[in-house]
Amino acid sequence: MLHAMHHYRAYGLRIRSSIPFPELMVAPAAQAADLTILRDALTDAPAFAPERSVQVRTTGSTVYAHWTNLGTYAADSGTCIRFCPAPTATPAMQRLPLLGVMMGLILHQRGTCTLHGSAIALPHGAAAFIGPKGAGKSTTAAALQEAGYPLLSDDVLALVRPAPDTPVAIEPAFPQIKLWPDAAQAVGQTPDRLDTIAPRLPKRAWRAPDRFASHAHPLRAIYVLGFGDALACTQLDAREAFVSVLSETYAPRFVGRHGTGANHFHQLAELVRHVPVYQLERPRDLTQLPDLVALLTDSPKTSLDTSPDAPVAHMPTHTMAPLP
User: CA-CA distance, 222 to 138, in Å (whole number)?
Assistant: First the structure.
Protein backbone atom coordinates (compact mmCIF):
# COMPACT_ATOMS: atom_id res chain seq x y z
CA MET A 1 0.00 0.00 0.00
CA LEU A 2 1.41 3.39 -1.03
CA HIS A 3 1.43 6.19 1.52
CA ALA A 4 1.40 9.90 0.82
CA MET A 5 4.87 11.43 0.90
CA HIS A 6 5.75 14.56 2.83
CA HIS A 7 7.95 17.25 1.29
CA TYR A 8 10.40 19.53 3.10
CA ARG A 9 13.52 21.61 2.59
CA ALA A 10 16.55 21.68 4.90
CA TYR A 11 20.30 22.20 4.42
CA GLY A 12 19.60 23.25 0.84
CA LEU A 13 18.14 19.82 0.07
CA ARG A 14 14.72 18.92 -1.30
CA ILE A 15 13.52 16.18 1.04
CA ARG A 16 10.82 13.58 0.43
CA SER A 17 9.79 11.54 3.46
CA SER A 18 7.40 8.71 4.23
CA ILE A 19 6.91 10.11 7.76
CA PRO A 20 5.93 13.63 8.86
CA PHE A 21 8.47 15.99 10.44
CA PRO A 22 6.94 18.79 12.53
CA GLU A 23 10.45 20.23 12.90
CA LEU A 24 11.08 20.81 9.19
CA MET A 25 9.95 23.59 6.86
CA VAL A 26 7.29 22.33 4.45
CA ALA A 27 8.13 22.69 0.76
CA PRO A 28 6.20 22.15 -2.49
CA ALA A 29 6.35 18.66 -3.92
CA ALA A 30 9.31 18.34 -6.27
CA GLN A 31 9.63 16.01 -9.24
CA ALA A 32 13.07 14.96 -8.01
CA ALA A 33 14.18 14.92 -4.39
CA ASP A 34 17.78 15.33 -3.24
CA LEU A 35 17.10 13.15 -0.19
CA THR A 36 14.48 10.48 0.46
CA ILE A 37 13.66 9.27 3.98
CA LEU A 38 11.93 5.89 4.23
CA ARG A 39 10.87 3.50 6.94
CA ASP A 40 12.31 0.13 5.92
CA ALA A 41 12.88 -3.38 7.26
CA LEU A 42 16.64 -2.95 6.67
CA THR A 43 17.18 -6.63 5.95
CA ASP A 44 20.58 -5.72 4.49
CA ALA A 45 21.89 -4.30 7.78
CA PRO A 46 24.80 -6.09 9.47
CA ALA A 47 24.37 -7.79 12.83
CA PHE A 48 24.96 -5.54 15.83
CA ALA A 49 26.11 -6.63 19.28
CA PRO A 50 23.13 -6.40 21.66
CA GLU A 51 25.28 -5.30 24.61
CA ARG A 52 26.50 -2.10 22.91
CA SER A 53 24.09 0.84 22.97
CA VAL A 54 25.49 2.71 19.93
CA GLN A 55 27.26 1.13 16.94
CA VAL A 56 28.25 2.35 13.47
CA ARG A 57 29.38 0.24 10.50
CA THR A 58 30.18 1.04 6.89
CA THR A 59 29.50 -1.31 3.98
CA GLY A 60 30.32 0.06 0.55
CA SER A 61 28.52 3.38 0.12
CA THR A 62 26.15 2.80 3.06
CA VAL A 63 26.73 3.76 6.68
CA TYR A 64 24.64 1.84 9.22
CA ALA A 65 24.01 3.20 12.71
CA HIS A 66 22.29 1.28 15.49
CA TRP A 67 20.89 2.47 18.83
CA THR A 68 19.36 -0.17 21.10
CA ASN A 69 16.59 2.20 22.22
CA LEU A 70 15.97 3.89 18.85
CA GLY A 71 16.53 1.33 16.09
CA THR A 72 18.73 0.83 13.04
CA TYR A 73 19.37 3.52 10.44
CA ALA A 74 21.19 3.59 7.09
CA ALA A 75 22.62 6.49 5.08
CA ASP A 76 22.89 5.49 1.41
CA SER A 77 25.21 7.35 -0.98
CA GLY A 78 24.08 10.80 0.14
CA THR A 79 20.59 10.38 -1.31
CA CYS A 80 18.53 8.18 1.02
CA ILE A 81 18.04 7.48 4.72
CA ARG A 82 16.30 4.23 5.64
CA PHE A 83 15.36 3.33 9.18
CA CYS A 84 13.81 0.49 11.16
CA PRO A 85 12.72 1.86 14.55
CA ALA A 86 12.94 -0.02 17.82
CA PRO A 87 9.53 -1.24 19.03
CA THR A 88 9.54 1.11 22.03
CA ALA A 89 10.75 4.22 20.17
CA THR A 90 8.14 6.97 19.96
CA PRO A 91 7.83 9.00 16.73
CA ALA A 92 9.75 11.86 18.37
CA MET A 93 12.54 9.48 19.38
CA GLN A 94 12.67 7.98 15.88
CA ARG A 95 13.22 11.43 14.39
CA LEU A 96 16.19 12.28 16.64
CA PRO A 97 18.80 10.35 14.60
CA LEU A 98 17.15 11.34 11.33
CA LEU A 99 17.60 15.05 12.06
CA GLY A 100 20.99 14.67 13.73
CA VAL A 101 23.51 11.91 13.10
CA MET A 102 21.97 10.56 9.90
CA MET A 103 21.53 14.00 8.37
CA GLY A 104 25.16 14.75 9.19
CA LEU A 105 26.24 11.52 7.52
CA ILE A 106 24.17 12.24 4.41
CA LEU A 107 25.70 15.71 4.08
CA HIS A 108 29.16 14.21 4.54
CA GLN A 109 28.47 11.63 1.82
CA ARG A 110 27.45 14.47 -0.49
CA GLY A 111 30.81 16.17 0.02
CA THR A 112 29.53 18.90 2.32
CA CYS A 113 31.77 20.06 5.16
CA THR A 114 29.85 19.72 8.43
CA LEU A 115 30.51 21.07 11.92
CA HIS A 116 28.86 20.27 15.23
CA GLY A 117 27.52 23.57 16.46
CA SER A 118 24.92 26.31 16.13
CA ALA A 119 24.72 29.29 13.81
CA ILE A 120 22.88 32.60 13.69
CA ALA A 121 22.41 35.05 10.81
CA LEU A 122 23.66 38.47 11.88
CA PRO A 123 23.27 41.59 9.69
CA HIS A 124 26.45 41.12 7.67
CA GLY A 125 26.97 37.37 7.85
CA ALA A 126 26.66 34.18 9.85
CA ALA A 127 28.28 33.48 13.21
CA ALA A 128 28.97 29.83 14.02
CA PHE A 129 29.38 28.58 17.58
CA ILE A 130 31.31 25.37 18.23
CA GLY A 131 32.81 23.74 21.31
CA PRO A 132 32.56 20.67 23.53
CA LYS A 133 29.32 19.30 24.86
CA GLY A 134 27.81 21.65 27.41
CA ALA A 135 29.77 24.70 26.24
CA GLY A 136 26.59 26.63 25.47
CA LYS A 137 26.30 26.46 21.68
CA SER A 138 22.52 26.20 21.65
CA THR A 139 22.14 28.64 24.54
CA THR A 140 24.21 31.28 22.74
CA ALA A 141 22.20 30.82 19.55
CA ALA A 142 18.94 31.01 21.51
CA ALA A 143 19.99 34.25 23.22
CA LEU A 144 20.75 35.81 19.83
CA GLN A 145 17.50 34.49 18.37
CA GLU A 146 15.57 35.98 21.28
CA ALA A 147 17.31 39.29 20.51
CA GLY A 148 15.82 39.17 17.01
CA TYR A 149 18.50 37.48 14.91
CA PRO A 150 17.39 34.54 12.72
CA LEU A 151 18.52 31.00 13.47
CA LEU A 152 20.40 29.12 10.76
CA SER A 153 21.01 25.78 12.47
CA ASP A 154 21.37 24.02 15.79
CA ASP A 155 23.45 20.82 16.01
CA VAL A 156 24.55 20.17 12.40
CA LEU A 157 26.13 23.01 10.41
CA ALA A 158 26.34 22.55 6.62
CA LEU A 159 29.06 24.68 5.02
CA VAL A 160 28.53 25.14 1.32
CA ARG A 161 29.46 27.43 -1.54
CA PRO A 162 26.37 28.43 -3.57
CA ALA A 163 28.57 29.22 -6.61
CA PRO A 164 32.29 29.01 -7.41
CA ASP A 165 32.80 32.77 -7.00
CA THR A 166 30.88 33.17 -3.73
CA PRO A 167 32.05 32.87 -0.11
CA VAL A 168 31.53 29.90 2.16
CA ALA A 169 27.99 29.97 3.51
CA ILE A 170 25.89 28.14 6.09
CA GLU A 171 22.66 26.61 4.80
CA PRO A 172 19.53 26.98 6.94
CA ALA A 173 18.52 23.71 8.60
CA PHE A 174 15.20 23.92 10.46
CA PRO A 175 13.73 26.28 13.10
CA GLN A 176 14.41 24.35 16.29
CA ILE A 177 16.85 24.84 19.16
CA LYS A 178 17.25 22.17 21.85
CA LEU A 179 17.60 23.71 25.31
CA TRP A 180 17.87 22.62 28.91
CA PRO A 181 15.02 24.08 31.01
CA ASP A 182 17.21 26.67 32.76
CA ALA A 183 18.57 27.90 29.43
CA ALA A 184 15.08 28.08 27.94
CA GLN A 185 13.92 30.16 30.89
CA ALA A 186 16.97 32.42 30.58
CA VAL A 187 15.98 33.38 27.02
CA GLY A 188 12.39 34.16 27.95
CA GLN A 189 10.71 30.82 27.28
CA THR A 190 8.50 28.78 29.59
CA PRO A 191 10.00 25.27 29.60
CA ASP A 192 6.71 23.52 30.42
CA ARG A 193 5.14 25.04 27.30
CA LEU A 194 7.83 23.66 25.01
CA ASP A 195 7.82 20.15 23.56
CA THR A 196 10.13 17.61 25.16
CA ILE A 197 12.84 16.11 22.95
CA ALA A 198 12.17 12.56 24.12
CA PRO A 199 10.63 10.77 27.12
CA ARG A 200 12.66 11.12 30.32
CA LEU A 201 14.91 13.71 28.66
CA PRO A 202 14.53 17.17 30.24
CA LYS A 203 15.70 19.05 27.14
CA ARG A 204 13.05 21.12 25.39
CA ALA A 205 12.53 22.05 21.73
CA TRP A 206 12.08 25.75 21.02
CA ARG A 207 10.58 26.17 17.56
CA ALA A 208 10.28 29.68 16.14
CA PRO A 209 9.65 29.59 12.37
CA ASP A 210 9.21 33.37 12.33
CA ARG A 211 12.81 33.76 13.56
CA PHE A 212 14.42 31.45 11.03
CA ALA A 213 16.72 32.31 8.12
CA SER A 214 15.18 31.61 4.72
CA HIS A 215 18.45 31.35 2.78
CA ALA A 216 22.15 30.63 3.20
CA HIS A 217 24.34 33.32 4.78
CA PRO A 218 28.09 33.89 4.28
CA LEU A 219 30.13 32.63 7.22
CA ARG A 220 32.00 35.58 8.74
CA ALA A 221 33.30 34.15 12.04
CA ILE A 222 33.57 30.94 14.08
CA TYR A 223 33.51 31.12 17.87
CA VAL A 224 34.91 28.30 20.03
CA LEU A 225 32.94 28.51 23.27
CA GLY A 226 34.23 28.00 26.78
CA PHE A 227 33.71 29.26 30.31
CA GLY A 228 35.69 31.86 32.23
CA ASP A 229 35.37 34.42 34.99
CA ALA A 230 34.50 37.19 32.53
CA LEU A 231 33.55 37.72 28.91
CA ALA A 232 36.66 37.45 26.75
CA CYS A 233 37.20 37.00 23.02
CA THR A 234 40.59 36.21 21.47
CA GLN A 235 41.37 35.35 17.86
CA LEU A 236 43.18 32.03 17.46
CA ASP A 237 46.24 31.55 15.30
CA ALA A 238 46.09 29.26 12.26
CA ARG A 239 47.19 26.11 14.09
CA GLU A 240 44.88 26.65 17.07
CA ALA A 241 42.00 27.42 14.73
CA PHE A 242 42.56 24.25 12.68
CA VAL A 243 42.75 22.02 15.76
CA SER A 244 39.61 23.59 17.23
CA VAL A 245 37.59 23.18 14.05
CA LEU A 246 38.89 19.66 13.41
CA SER A 247 37.70 18.55 16.85
CA GLU A 248 34.17 19.75 16.06
CA THR A 249 33.68 18.27 12.59
CA TYR A 250 30.45 16.32 12.61
CA ALA A 251 30.55 13.14 10.53
CA PRO A 252 34.09 11.85 11.26
CA ARG A 253 33.23 11.22 14.90
CA PHE A 254 30.82 8.54 13.66
CA VAL A 255 32.61 7.13 10.61
CA GLY A 256 36.19 7.28 11.93
CA ARG A 257 38.91 6.97 9.30
CA HIS A 258 36.32 7.12 6.51
CA GLY A 259 35.71 10.76 7.39
CA THR A 260 39.31 11.95 7.60
CA GLY A 261 40.53 11.75 4.02
CA ALA A 262 42.73 14.32 2.30
CA ASN A 263 39.78 16.34 1.01
CA HIS A 264 38.31 16.58 4.50
CA PHE A 265 41.52 18.08 5.90
CA HIS A 266 41.78 20.36 2.88
CA GLN A 267 38.27 21.66 3.50
CA LEU A 268 39.12 22.56 7.08
CA ALA A 269 42.47 24.12 6.19
CA GLU A 270 40.81 26.35 3.61
CA LEU A 271 38.04 27.21 6.05
CA VAL A 272 40.33 28.50 8.80
CA ARG A 273 42.54 30.23 6.24
CA HIS A 274 39.67 32.47 5.19
CA VAL A 275 37.30 32.62 8.17
CA PRO A 276 38.54 34.01 11.53
CA VAL A 277 38.20 31.68 14.51
CA TYR A 278 37.87 33.12 18.02
CA GLN A 279 38.06 31.67 21.52
CA LEU A 280 35.02 33.09 23.31
CA GLU A 281 34.69 32.65 27.07
CA ARG A 282 31.76 33.65 29.26
CA PRO A 283 30.67 33.14 32.87
CA ARG A 284 28.30 30.25 33.54
CA ASP A 285 25.81 32.75 34.97
CA LEU A 286 22.88 32.72 32.52
CA THR A 287 21.76 36.16 33.66
CA GLN A 288 24.78 37.55 31.78
CA LEU A 289 23.56 36.33 28.39
CA PRO A 290 22.51 39.89 27.39
CA ASP A 291 26.15 40.95 27.83
CA LEU A 292 27.20 38.11 25.53
CA VAL A 293 24.68 39.22 22.91
CA ALA A 294 25.98 42.78 23.17
CA LEU A 295 29.56 41.61 22.76
CA LEU A 296 28.72 39.64 19.63
CA THR A 297 26.63 42.37 18.02
CA ASP A 298 28.14 45.67 19.23
CA SER A 299 31.87 45.24 19.77
CA PRO A 300 34.04 46.38 16.83
CA LYS A 301 36.36 43.44 17.50
CA THR A 302 33.78 40.69 17.51
CA SER A 303 30.72 42.09 15.77
CA LEU A 304 29.91 40.87 12.29
CA ASP A 305 28.61 44.34 11.43
CA THR A 306 31.60 44.89 9.16
CA SER A 307 31.88 47.20 6.19
CA PRO A 308 30.44 46.00 2.87
CA ASP A 309 33.95 46.08 1.38
CA ALA A 310 35.44 43.74 3.98
CA PRO A 311 37.00 40.62 2.42
CA VAL A 312 34.98 37.43 2.53
CA ALA A 313 36.07 33.82 2.31
CA HIS A 314 36.37 32.29 -1.14
CA MET A 315 36.95 28.57 -1.43
CA PRO A 316 38.46 26.56 -4.28
CA THR A 317 35.73 25.07 -6.44
CA HIS A 318 36.23 21.47 -5.29
CA THR A 319 36.33 21.95 -1.53
CA MET A 320 32.97 22.96 -0.10
CA ALA A 321 30.44 22.41 -2.83
CA PRO A 322 28.27 19.30 -2.41
CA LEU A 323 28.46 16.66 -5.10
CA PRO A 324 26.08 17.22 -8.05
Answer: 14
pLDDT digits (tens, 9 = 90+) for 42-94: 999 999 988 788 899 988 899 999 999 999 999 999 999 999 999 999 999 99
Q: Which residue intervals of the chain are DSSP H helices?
A: 91-99, 101-109, 137-146, 181-186, 238-246, 252-255, 262-274, 289-298
Report how far residue 271's alpha carbon sits from residue 218's, in angstroms, rounded to the nearest whole number: 12
Angle CA 257–156–19, to nearest 5? 105
55 C-beta neighbours (distance < 10 Å), count: 15
CB 275 within 8 A of CB 240: no
The per-residue pLDDT of the chain, averaged, comes to: 88
Query: Which uninterrupted H or E stretch holds 75?
Result: strand 71-76
Query: How far apart are alpha carbons 93 and 198 in whole angstroms?
Result: 6
Question: What is the pTM for the complete model shown?
Answer: 0.89
| All domains of the chain in start order, with CATH | 6-109 (no CATH), 113-298 (3.40.50)
Contact of 283 with 231, CB cutoff 8 Å: yes
Please provide the distance, in angstroms rounded to a whole number, between the alpha carbons at the two ends of the chain.
32
77: CB partners within 8 A, 6+ apart: 61, 62, 109
